């Protein structure tokens, strides 16, 4: 099942009254070249709007809230995730949809975090950014932003949002946020969703694939979750990894959760010391989740003998989840409901993993 929305005239008529809140956190998309130094600097909102006259062209009613100061996304973490999610939550009834401007470097982390923070979301929250600043001639900013707004405003014949999820729109694809990874530091097509298809594709038409979209129960109210526990770590295995390295990480004071990045279908060296360290960590109450280092495909513990030790040690399967989604989900569950974190990490909460 596909739905095509012809842009321009038809869309204009249908979405004339759609009201969108544009939340600008910063990133390359908000930058211009400083005339004196030649360096890229964040533009103030008036300068940004001057580069984007389409924002006030009247197709949609776009209101803007900009963070001060604007932030490079490498400096974004749980406190700013809360600021973003709270802005959506506080203004939820006033707008039809939300677009969040964000640097590309950590966009997949922030967007994944918001997908877990905004439970029972019934309106679109579309993240976008650009590889080239808005003030540069060949910039991808305009196309990304205008299409993101159009998607955030898109409604079906009954007036319901077509994609009421947290998503990332970039280049020509709309992805479920918690399935994305930044894959390219150079190309305009910066993101991919390796284990779940795009929710919409933009060309001359925007083609929506509603059968892939997750719709929350409309009778349940939007609920905001903001308590993150950052006592987590990512342990990436590699051939030749030394016991002292693993030991130092797993014995970090206060550690509560670990994303264990393994080989292939969830495999690890069969050294006895590794098993002992993992088992001892699990016995100390640390939650360890197995995530494959491969972009595509899933963890399948037990398929090879070299993953049996992980199962015996009590390591959980992350199936086909991304590191960005697993890490943010783990931090939020450890902060919000630590007693259920283990059980909920094994469940698909909002489309972030496929459990066969
Ligand atoms: N460093 C920038 C950021 O993530 C890069 C970008 O926006 O593409 O904020």
Structure write-up:
With 356 residues, the protein is α/β, with parallel strands linked by helices. 27% of the residues lie in helices and 21% in strands. It is built from ten helices and 19 strands. The strands form five sheets. A nine-stranded mixed beta sheet has the order 1-14-13-10-9-8-6-2-5, sandwiched between helices. A hairpin with a 2-residue loop joins strand 9 and strand 10 (173-176). The longest helix is centred in the C-terminal third of the chain and has 14 residues, at 323-336. It is globular. The model is unreliable at 5-15 (pLDDT under 50). The structure holds aspartic acid (ASP).
Beta content comes to 15-25%
Ends: how far apart?
23 Å
| Strand order in the largest sheet | 1-14-13-10-9-8-6-2-5
Radius of gyration: 21 Å
Q: Would you tell me the structural class of the helices and strands?
A: alpha/beta
Distinct small-molecule ligands in the complex: aspartic acid
**Portion of residues in helices?**
25-40%
Helix-strand topology string: EHEEEHEHEHEEHEEEEEEEEHEHEHEHH
Count of DSSP helices? Answer: 10
Please tally the β strands and state the result. Answer: 19
Stretches where pLDDT is under 50 for at least 5 consecutive residues are 5-15
So what's the overall shape? globular
- Please, what is the average pLDDT? 93
Q: Describe the biggest sheet?
A: 9 strands, mixed
């Amino acid at each position: 099942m596909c739905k095509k929305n012809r842009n321009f005239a038809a869309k204009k008529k249908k979405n004339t009254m759609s009201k969108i809140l544009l939340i600008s956190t910063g990133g390359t998309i908000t930058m211009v070249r400083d005339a004196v130094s030649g360096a890229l600097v964040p533009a103030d909102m008036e300068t940004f709007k001057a580069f984007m006259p389409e924002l006030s062209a009247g197709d949609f009613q776009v209101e803007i809230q900009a963070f001060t100061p604007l932030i490079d996304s490498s400096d974004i973490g749980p406190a700013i995730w809360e600021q973003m999610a709270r802005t959506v939550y506080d203004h939820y009834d006033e707008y039809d949809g939300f677009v969040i401007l964000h640097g590309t470097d950590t966009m997949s982390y922030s967007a994944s975090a918001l997908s877990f923070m905004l439970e029972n979301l019934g309106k679109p929250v579309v993240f976008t950014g650009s590889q080239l600043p808005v003030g540069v001639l060949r910039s991808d900013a305009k196309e990304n932003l205008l299409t993101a707004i159009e998607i955030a405003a898109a409604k079906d014949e009954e007036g319901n949002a077509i994609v009421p999820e947290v998503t990332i729109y970039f280049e020509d694809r709309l992805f479920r946020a918690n399935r994305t990874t930044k894959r390219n530091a150079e190309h305009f097509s910066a993101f991919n969703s390796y284990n779940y298809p795009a929710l919409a594709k933009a060309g001359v038409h925007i083609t929506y694939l509603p059968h892939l979209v997750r719709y929350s129960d409309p009778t349940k109210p939007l609920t905001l979750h903001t308590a993150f526990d950052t006592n987590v770590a990512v342990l990436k295995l590699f051939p030749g990894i030394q016991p002292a390295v693993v030991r130092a990480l797993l014995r970090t004071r206060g550690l509560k959760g670990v994303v264990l990045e393994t080989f292939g279908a969830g495999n690890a060296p069969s050294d006895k010391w590794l098993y002992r360290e993992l088992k001892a960590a699990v016995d100390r109450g640390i939650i360890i989740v197995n995530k494959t280092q491969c972009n595509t495909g899933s963890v399948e513990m037990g398929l090879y003998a070299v993953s049996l030790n992980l199962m015996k040690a009590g390591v959980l399967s992350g199936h086909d989840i991304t590191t960005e989604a697993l890490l943010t989900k783990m931090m939020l569950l450890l902060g919000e409901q630590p007693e259920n974190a283990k059980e909920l990490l094994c469940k698909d909460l909002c489309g972030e993993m496929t459990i066969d």
